[in-house]
Amino acid sequence: MLALLRRKARSPIIQIAIVVIILVFIFWLPQMGGDGGSGTVAVVNDEPISVREFQRRYDDLLAQYRDQMGGVIPPELLEALGVREQVVNQLIQERLLLQSAVQTGLPVTRDEVRQAVHAMGEFSENGYFSLDIYRQTLARARIGVQEYEAGIRTDLQRRKIVEHLVSFARVGESEVRERFHRDHDQVRLSYLRLAAADFRAGISPTEEELSEYYEANAERYRGEARLRLDYLLFSPDSDSSLVVAEEQIAAYYQENHDQFNFPEQRRARHILIRSGAADSPELRESRRSQLQEVLEQARAGRDFVELALLYSEDATAADGGDLGYFSRGEMVGPIEEAAFALQPGEISGIVETSFGFHLVKLEEIKPARRISLDEARQDIAQKLRVERGRQLAFARAGDVYEEVLTSGSLARGAEATGEQVRSTAMFKRSLPPAELARRQELVVAAFRLNQGELSSIVPTGDGGYAILFVPEREEPRIPALAEIRARVAEDFINARAREAARQAAEGALAALTGGRELEAVAAELGQGVRLSGWFARATAATAELPSSVTAAGLRLSEKSPLPSRVQAADDHYYIIRLAERRPGDEALFARWAEPIREQLLRAKQEALVDSWVKHLVGQADIRLTKGAF
Description:
By secondary structure, the chain is of the alpha+beta class. It has 22 helices and 21 strands. Strand 3 (124-125) and strand 4 (128-129) form a beta hairpin.
């Protein structure tokens, strides 16, 4: 509860800083001393951290993990996560930050605490702070006013020291330009691509070579487990002659009325310009202005799909921003409200969510409707027949299973009840027989059984049931060379071909490094010189070359146009040379300058906090109480 009420007192910068600080303490904690007094978990520069503080913070963190994991946390997971150590780390870093705030001369006044409390919506009524709600809320949480406000004071003091530290971060114009050019300067590569497949000719292993290769790589040829399966199937009875009473149909319709109510659905498109809470007001306003220009184009008649393709920063851009059909409660709140306030063809104003700024266009409305009992009668009757069929199949499977257990044999139990045992040949899990290919649940269940083992009653995907028995099973083994000679020979040839291609590529690169021309080296290898398209670090993912090749290419320059080594990808070997390099477009810089500045600023702010915390840890006298946590 305390963590919830105090959440709004924390800024994004502080949250980032706390992550950095926790990582620092995870590194430093094992080096700290261990002679704190009883009733404490640690002493930080002569200030104790009490067991009570530790327990309260531990309970808060545990509650967070329970929320994330559905309420159940195995004890071994808590130990693996190091939750107790995390809590001690957090408490120590808070002490050090607060101590440094005091030493730096950053006090928190009573008025600042009051303003922080009044700003919290949890204590407001009709938009105004309510002292009664404030006291009642704290009383329900069993937190005293003084204790709570001391916590607020702590948060504010921590915020002040962090904000004081990050205020020293500066990003110069040259740094922004340097990062822009790093990400957006483009290169074009000349290259040779040697395929391993082209070097296979003439490779013919001797028996000795094949045997040596097999011995060195034997584990690669270990096979899968195989088994033979006997089984009984009990399919759900789908006999349409099963009589379903009108009273049953009517009762089902009344008890499951939600199935027959279809709420209004709307189909919409959107355009997203991303912006997060951590962005500066200036950057957010810049992003909003970008979307405002797009909105003006849309209202001037430009196609919304085209605008989404051009400007949207969401994964739906490729589909023209299509969000599909949705009902109320199925879409992000602000977008949903906008869509349900529009008429088909209308475009909203700018809508803000935690993802950024959106435009929403409504495409179509499907009105709400309720299917009548008459319309639903046949479907309900069929559902009830299927359910009855499942019940009969399970009852039949249960009777047979009892007989199998009594007789001690699947075959005798089946014979006594008039069922037919089905049998397979030996098969692997990855290649089941045709009759089981669509019943993967039975394949999985079968491979959980040992030889001679009988399964329980296994549900099937079609609503039926099965009983399985494994009369024979072979565990994975490495086959003899004679059994897989052709496969081993193929692998040997491929390996030698790859090695030959690699050596040829390395020889070509050495020749280029020695001053030879790429065209001459290519001609000797019977290859043509290829020319890549233009790409930058920011667009490398769309280049036609593998990522390892583009990464190496981006490191090249006019002074060093060749890489230090050959690049390999998918049995191909690339010898690359820088053909051209050109700077990023100035118009592109105008768009990206501010986001780059923000990114660099955040990185510097985190580095400042990281450095300060390391300094505090290095200077502090920190003593842990052995056995206290």
